[in-house]
Structure formats: structure tokens, C-alpha cells
Amino acid sequence: MPKNLSLEQVIASTSTGVVITDPHQPDNPILYANLAFTQITGYDVAEVVGKNCRFLSGVDTDPGTLQLLREAIAQQQSITCTLLNYRRDGSCFWNEITVDPVFEDGKLLYFVAMQRDVTTRQQSIDLKLMEERLLYEALYDSLTGLPNRILLMERLRQAVQAAQQGEDTLFATLFIDLDRFKMINDSLGHSVGDRLLVDIANRLSGCLCPKDTLARLGGDEFVVLLEDLSNRESVTRVADRIQYALTLPFSVEGHEVFTAASIGIALSTTGYACPEDLLRDADIAMYCAKAQGRARYEIFQPKMHTRAVTLLQLETDLRRAIERQELQLYYQPIISLRTRQAIGFEALIRWQHPTRGMVSPSEFIPIAEETGLIVPIGDWVLRQACQQMQTWRQMFADRPPLMVNVNVSGKQFGSHLTEQVSQILRDTGLDPHQLKLEITETLLMENAEYAVNGLTQLQKLGIQLAIDDFGTGYSSLSYLHRLPIDTLKIDRSFISRLDTDAEQLTIVRTIIMLAWNLGMDVVAEGVETSKQLAQLYALRCEYAQGYFFSKPLDAQSAEQLIRSQQLAEL
Ligand code: C2E
Ligand code: MG
Ligand code: MG
Questions:
Q1: What pTM value is reported for the model?
Q2: Quick one: 145 exposed, middle or buried, by C-beta within 10 A (0-12, 13-18, 19+)?
């Protein structure tokens, strides 16, 4: 140390804040603070002497770091840490503090605490962390940690570009959509659904090489980009592997869950100029896979594109169909085989398309279900059918009331159907006993957990329930008796073969017996010939419906039928 410079002068003139505290007095008060300390904190020396340093801390000073600081002091050890502190004017700053104990002959004398305002440095660290965080969030899916759509598009763009620059590589995009995921989500809850998605993401990763990209687009949609492929077979091998991996059950929060995936594949051999087209074609192929019965894969072919455009057009038109009053209900009589009289009608929707003419419900109901349009359409059907029935009830008040059967799709089943039905009954004034809802067997099995509750609630409204197209799904028969079902409708495919196939007779007989045992009545659908009718008589089937009696009729013709029946009764 130079002779003309005292230690005190050094401490007084350094830009580091220095504080000396006395550990021998209660609460370790400040004995000394230098000029730099007053400049950093804004406090005068006189204000701080006698106080514990904690007056610099505030509510958001990290308690963990404070605790470390206290422990080091208690154990008479050195420590360096960075704390959020407050100046006299209330503004905050990042204070890098180094506390050292000063010993003499092994005995603690004082603590010296040096302080530096490191706000600028700290802020740049914060910014960098934040930047990394934001970048991560922008490019990765928060649930699964997989790349998201943006990162996927970037990788697709690179692949397309490489191919355009003449690199002779084969690559492929696999669009994976889980079958029935929504049903799992709705019946077991979102947290199970989320867990399942994470497990599925892990299983999918297990089917791929590290260089492949697996992305989640959101919901239950995943996309795989495979690059540097040797041939087409290596793509289908991956698709097979994925489908096999997903057939094994998942165990999520105590539930054993089964799932499967439909996969659409777009190959680079089709020749792509932009990544969006690649993804679109894989998506179209995926829809084709779903349409062909799910749990399978399809490789994109240009002819699929035309079909997709047609579907899209149909969807757009369907959206306008309600407002433009293009929808209409037809009524097909349901006949009692004992009296040969109609006991009611099944309401069947028709779409009078402005340019395409009459479009069959088998064509547009699936689109309406896929797009959610079935909810407003279903509401319209139910309201219209109930209203019509109430009109006829009033018109033909002196004869026994007729039933109206209304078909209900899966999407409607999940969304407040009970409230909707009870509202419509109230609005139209129809007696609930005159309404029967037809629910397909597949729908019941797919919503097994929900079905018992949902149907019981519906039954409480006083309406009746029928299982439609019975025999085509995979009903567990033991499950059937738990459902409050009034009627089984035997699918047309069994009736149509009654003429030719003796085995069918046995099946139909078994269904009729089953229904009786469960206390349900039976309607045979699609009766077309007198021979079929004779067989049904022999089997003592009670009700039938089909072209043999009548095709579906518009409201006016149905009304005539009721009138003629009334005359016959007289
Ligand atoms: P579904 O409920 O099983 O209706 C019976 C279908 O069989 C009707 O076809 C009917 O016209 C047809 N059919 C009746 N008797 C005979 C027959 O003897 N021979 C033949 N070959 N066919 C017969 P449609 O009207 O084309 O309806 C097809 C399906 O579309 C319906 O099958 C039902 O699942 C659905 N659907 C119709 N209307 C609605 C609706 O308002 N809402 C919902 N969700 N689905 C509907
Ligand atoms: Mg039906
Ligand atoms: Mg049917």
C-alpha cells in the first residue's frame, strides 16, 4: 500500500458499495457505509447506520437467495449472490452482493458486504432467457414438447427446396389422425386426454429415427416428415409400425384405453413446389383412409384431390341449406303387421340442392357430422318433425296418436341433447310419448360410458328410444339390458337376404327373441317383398317398414295416408 494512501481512502473512493456490519450487536447492524453505497442505493450514511441490511429488500426479492445469505452469515462463511433490491426512491436494481467475514486470531470481528449494481447485465440475461423461451414456445407444442406446425412447415420447406435444387432424395409426409380421440376426451376428461396424447407422442417417437421430424399440429393430429428414404416401402413400413404401436392399449390414470390411427401419406415423387401442398395432400389422403373405415393408411393420388374439392363444395352448400330452406322432411310409415296400419312414421331428411337435385342423406349426413353442422341440422329436424306431428295430432284428434321417429347422430348425442329435446317438446306442445329417437348401435358402443346416463335422462322426458340398424355394429349383448331401449330396428341387410339365405332366418329369429327377452319391441327395416313379409309373420315380428308398404313420403302424401287410414277405421 503506498504510504500516502490509507485503506479508508481506497474504500471511500471505490465505485463498489461497501458496508461493514457488527455481528456482535443484535440484528447485525451497519457500522459503516461508503460513498458508492449511498450512490447505488440513494440512502444517506446517517440513514443506514444502525440498521440491518434487509431494508434494501422488497416483496419480490427471492426468498430462497435471502435464505442462503442468512445461512452463510450464521455460519460465518463468504457468499456471493445477486438480489433484487430497492433504492430509496422505490426503484429496483439487481445487487450483486459479496459478504465476507473478517477474523482476527480466529475470532469473528465484522462482516464486510460489497455491492455492485448489475442491473444492465442481469436484464440482458433475462432478455436472453425470455428470447429463448419465446422462441421455444413459438416452435414447439407445449403439451408434448414436439415441434409445432411452424417448425414443421420450416422443415417441409427445406425438404421441398432441396428436392427442387435437384437433390435426388425421396421424402414423405405422414398425416396421422387418431380415430375416436374426441370420444375418449369427452368421456374420460381432458386431463386423461392430455396424458394420452403425451403417451401417444412418445410411442410415435419410438417408431422413428432421430433424423425424422415428428410434429403435433394440435388436437389429435400429428405429422411425420421422413427424409432420405431409399424407396417407397420404407414409408409404408413406418406407417405399419406406427399403426401396430398404437393398437397396444394405453394405461392412463387407471383407465385402459384403446386407440388407432388413420394415416395419409404424401410422397415427394408427386413433385411439390410448396410445403403447404404437401401437407394438404397428406391430409386429403388421411381423410380417404378414415372414409375407408379408419385404422389404415392411404397414399395420396391426384384423383383424391377432386373428391376432396367436391366434398368441400358440398360442405359450403350445406351451410347455406338451412337458411335457404332447401332441407325437407320425408315420412316413411312404420306398419303394425297385426293390423296392417301405420303406427307412426320415421322422419327422413332430404336435401333439395339447387343444382344437384335431391342429395341423399347417406351422402351429406357424414359431412354434416364431420363439420359439426349436424347440430343445427339435427335441431331443425327434431323441431320440424315434432311440429308436424303436433299438427297431425290436432288434425286427427279422434284417432289413436301416431309416433314420430327421429334419427340422432353421435355429435348430437354428446351436446345437450336432453335439454334440446325438452325445449322442442315444450315449444311445439307435442306429447313426449309420441316421440322416439333412433340411435345407431355403433354410436351406443362408441359412447358406452356416456350412453347409459344419457339415455336414462332422455327416457325421463317420457320419450322412447330405439336402436337403429341393429346387427351391423358390435353390440355387446350383455350391455344391452342396461340400456333403457324400447325398440330394436333390425337392419335392412338381414331382411333383404331373408328371401335367399336360410342362415339369415336364424339370425333374425335370434334378434327377435333377444328383444322380447329384454322387453323391447322389434321393427324390421327395409321390407321389399311379400316373401320377406311372410317370413316375418312366421317369426311373429310385430312391426315393419319398407318399400313394400311405402317409400318415404313428403308431408302432404303422409297426411293423405293418415286420412285414408282414418276412413278405413270408420
Ligand atoms: P335409417 O335411419 O336406417 O333409415 C332407413 C333408410 O332406409 C332410409 O334411407 C330409407 O329411405 C331406406 N329404406 C326404407 N325402406 C327401404 C327399403 O325397403 N329398401 C331400401 N333399399 N331402402 C329402404 P334414407 O332416407 O336415404 O336415409 C339413410 C340414412 O340417413 C338413414 O338410415 C339415417 O341413418 C340417415 N338419416 C336420414 N335422415 C336423418 C336425420 O334427420 N338425421 C340423422 N342424423 N340421420 C338421418
Ligand atoms: Mg333410422
Ligand atoms: Mg335404419
A1: 0.59
A2: exposed
